[in-house]
Amino acid sequence: MPQTDPALSVFDADTAVTRVEGGGLAADLDDGWDVAPGILNGGYLLAVVARAALAESPHPHPVALAASFLRATPPGRAALAVTPGPAGRTLAHSSVVLSGDGGPSLTAQVTTATLTDAAPDWSATPPPAATPVADCLPPGDDGTLVHPMPEVGLRTRVHTRLDPETAGWALGRPGTEPRMRGWVRLADGREPDPLALLLFADVLPPTSWATGRFGWAPTVQLQVLVRALPAPGWCLVEARAGEVAGGWLDEDYRIWDSTGRLVAQSRQLARAPR
Question: To pair with 60 at 20 to 30 A between CA atoms, which of 16, 126, 164, 170?
């Protein structure tokens, strides 16, 4: 992973991992990826974990991650313990534990392999008929939004353009279906790759917001599948909840690249906003 290039993007610099004395890995988690004071975004943390796994893998791309979030992870120095598992010609497995001053905060099982940009043999999930980027909601509060997205660090690092079809909540008209859709790309112009797709798999506001139920929805478990190398340009992300009950919320993400090809999927379990 080219982490020593002086022209690195903000995303590359902030997800970099380095070797420390004794042979372990460490990362300096940047507060610019927060979703609340002192709490970093789960997709950003997954990208850091994936970099650690790739540092110990013979393969170049993350293709499957299953992460458990043990507690909220704050900015600062973090240690990454990678335990390699079985590895072969086409894929490799490993376990990664991310720890800070308070102890472990995230554990993940990571599978690495080599992805391509080939067209799928078959796909059951074509992209939805989304509103074009230029006609989506403005990136900030221009005075027309009743409930704008919070001004957290993540919103300055990822450009998000919400589709008005699923963003009635922002205009004071929440709907009945917990579904969210929008176009995303890194704010510094860096084109998407498998690591960025891990970030995008947890980048939209909670789907409960679509129904007017606002608040923080902390991720408890997150699984991501990266299916292909994405084309340059905006990615279309759609998230749907299948069940909101008993204080729990599930979300299924689908991510399409600028050519309309499905490039990533995710499923997460989160606490529902109170």
Answer: 126
